[in-house]
Amino acid sequence: MMFAKSFTTPLRRLATLLLSCAAVASAQAATITIVNQNAPGVGFNDPTPVTPVGGNPGTTLGQQRLLAFQHAADIWGATLTSKVPIRIGASFVPLSCTENSAVLGSAGANEIWSDFTNAPRPGTWYPSALASKLAGTDVSTPGEPHIIARFNSRLGLFPDCLPGPGFYLGFDRNAGAAIDLVTVLLHEMAHGLGFQTFTDDETGAEILGVPSIWDYYLVDNRTERPWVDMTDAERVASAISGNGLSWNGPIVTAAVPQVLDPRSRLTVGGSAAGGAAGNYDVGDASFGPPLGATPVTGQLMPVVEAANALGQACTPLDALNALAVRGNIALVSRGTCPFVDKARNVQAAGAIGMVVADNAPGDPTGMSGADPSITIPSVRVTQAAGASLLGALQSRSRTRSGVVASLGIDPARLAGTDTRRRILMYTPTVNAPGSSVSHYTTEAKPNQLMEPSINSDLTHEVTPPRDLTYPLLQDIGW
Questions:
Q1: Please, which pLDDT band fits residue 336 given cuts at 50, 70 and 90?
Q2: Which of 23, 44, 208, 469 has the fewest CB atoms in 10 Å of its CB?
């Protein structure tokens, strides 16, 4: 005899970066309702006067926050199908923050259920919003929301909480240096709807020995074994595998070719390249022009700031280094300064491109930052690749190396996918609690909504041909 089991998980396995929420969605497909959990005078009830911005007509801070939630909910509501209204317990409250960093919020499924009526897979955890849709009736504990969401009410408003523009509450994506709240809401609502695993990626343990619906679609691309068939130890290893974990859902995989662009690559050749010749996987920069079918090609020249050591280009280049990189592609080391500072400095010296060699082992990952003044392309290579390239540059003149670098794309590979064109999951070699496994890779191009951080080039789209969030929710049952 089948029976329903539930497990209440307030704010468990949530992205610590952001947060989920909603309001009343359009009647076309699903209704999403905010359960305002703020006390009078704070959060959604904050009476602070504000000026309408970016299509948000609210005239108080609380009202604008609520309308931003509703706008995000309208997008998801028009996308989803469910007869059961989705309730989100939401609030703006003080969260941890300093002058330099802050928790924006957190969100996720409030309860998880297995073995409910019409459950597609027996003995499997589903988030309560999805379980209710599949059951055709609300399975959640009476009075409980399906999703719990908390936002940082102090962000940008106090000198000890990441002072600055804070959240942008408009609907038009003109956030500038601020954090686009609607984008954050769309991201975090997806977590609450089921874009998260309930299996512990730090220990590999399943809750009460029951797998998550996610575990059927997470596959180690080196062994082709799904998480549901692994031991706890094997899941732990997979969760810190770099690029070893893929999403194997058929709907996402079918959509990947229409959403993701070709993978960027560095091709090295020339008379002095020697053993360094070949193609290198790279991480893309969020600043500067994207790489395209017409590669940027030039002599590869190192920035040198100490004997036999690759320089970081954190300060304007001296005369000799400027002479070396002018009209060439600069090779620099990752260091303590922002990537945009490096690009700005080598560009000012006349470089036509930049290659950043990592200073620690690992797979190549992207480079964050924004500066519209940067007009040269930049890529990041592994520590091992950097050492190989630097070795090939030992015999060079002041302006030529005989090592030719070409920054372009690989038309046979899609960015952020494995060899079978399945999108990779975010599995850095050091576990990132709240981020690892329950997000897409940072190597996807264009950037995807469900990467572990919010990128400035994101739209408010959740479906192909721009985004792969909804296809994953479809894979698990939406």
A1: confident
A2: 208
Predicted confidence (pLDDT) per residue in 366-417, tens digit: 898 889 999 999 999 999 999 999 999 999 999 999 999 999 999 999 999 9
- Render the burial of 223-256: b for 16+ CB within 10 Å, e for the rest: eeebbbebeeeebbbbbbbebbbbbbbebbbebb
Domains of the chain: 5-196 (no CATH), 217-260+415-478 (no CATH), 262-414 (3.50.30.30)
Cβ neighbourhood burial of 109 (10 Å; 0-12, 13-18, 19+):
buried
